[in-house]
Amino acid sequence: MKKINLRQVMYLILGMAFVLVEYLRATMTGAVWKPAANFVGILTELLILSNMDLKKIRKSVAAVATLVTAIGIVAACILFKSHVGEWSLAQINTGVINVGLLILIWSVLFEEFLITKTRKIKSDPLFGLFFLIAVLSVISRSSAWWPVWFLFVFGAYYLTDIKDSRSLKKGLTRGIIAGFFILQSFAFLFRPFDALRYAGPYPNCNDTALFYVCVYVCILTELGNCYREKVSKQIKLVLYVLAASMWSFMLYTQCRTIWGTAFVITVIYGVAELIKNRKAGVIGALKQGVLFGVVALCMIPLVYIPVRYLPCVHPHPIWYEGEYRLSAVHSFDPIDSPKFTSYEELKSSALGRLIFKKVNPGEEPKGFAPFTGEPKYVTIGQNGADMTNSMLVRKEIFKAYLKEFNLIGHHPDDVKFVYGSGNPVWHAQNLWIQIGYDFGVLAFAAAVILSVLILIRLVKNVLKGDSIYSLFALLVYVIFFLYGTMEIVWKPGQLIFALAFLVMHPCFKNTDEEKERAVS
Prior knowledge:
mainly alpha
């Protein structure tokens, strides 16, 4: 009987926990999602501690960390009584726990670097650039502290030697896949398909699409891992069909950014696997690509069946805050209610978005305008720009934010934008522009350079060896950067944001797969 790898089970639970954090981040009110976001730090810190020799933690340091945590929690509970409605008590308490755990971790690291000198500090331009962004975030008008928090949490993570890195990588990807099955099962039972764009377990179809593409990459990674190990054909077939099925889920969300991202990911994955297995040749790779495309097309109507009909088996729909509407499916609606999205409606809407039809017919946005009090409107698109086209809308958002660039960034209440009849623009719809707007033009330049260097390093890691997990790390950043060109991807608590930091650990570039297999 094969011995259970407890460490891998622990990491699988860790992957599922990151999925849960994102789910709470995307679906709950601030009283829940704010402390949930803090668990990105707590989970990572527990990961670090599980790979540390806990005997190295001095009793005096442990006492200080415990005292700081206890005093912080008690003080927060006392002060909270006079700030009800202003503070999130759980957020403060989870923040205090983060501090306590970081005291333990960094006490060991400082001792190893400065006292015993058993470790040497190695310079890394990526760390230097992120350190610069963290400093600029604090001194900017935004006064954002999350980059500093991430610097301490993930800085310690990168300095930690993972005892069984293969178990971490396998557990993380499998945990995310397991999280998908749990959330999608919930969606099958309680989230009827009654809108043109499928939202699944989340209230926002774009959040759903982003989650699906993360799962898609994990499935592709597991599939690639199966071809490197002695795994039965049945498991490979299941993973292959599951990967093809993910295209259906992504198509139903009608998020075009994810469509393009998933296509690029598939091509990169296919090319990388072709380089690994040169015997297949270009023709063989093209045949595999066509076969995968055919299977994916066949799955589109098949996946529609459970998405459309399973919620009718247990007719108790669950709505999130602000989501309820009379046109939604209710428990008393029959299985053939016209409120459900028909396959023809889905197909027509998806094809319309594919050819970039107008997204808001009948609504003529007046334009974007910064405001510090009452909204003011300015007319844009005098040259015939169609502001009902989502691509042109984003173009105008980019221009509006770029015009406000300066050296010191902006406070959250400094400048806001609206369009149409007063619809707010919550963010710049672009990762790098948002960084430049919040933290200043120097942070923008640092972020662009950092992004280029990360991609160069990850591509080199893939080309150097046969590690499926170095390819996984690259594909994570393909998601992060491509989705980041059109949407927001840097909210603490998001799965893709956590993965972007987790996969930068040196263990993800390890090419000595045979040695790691022997360990796991």
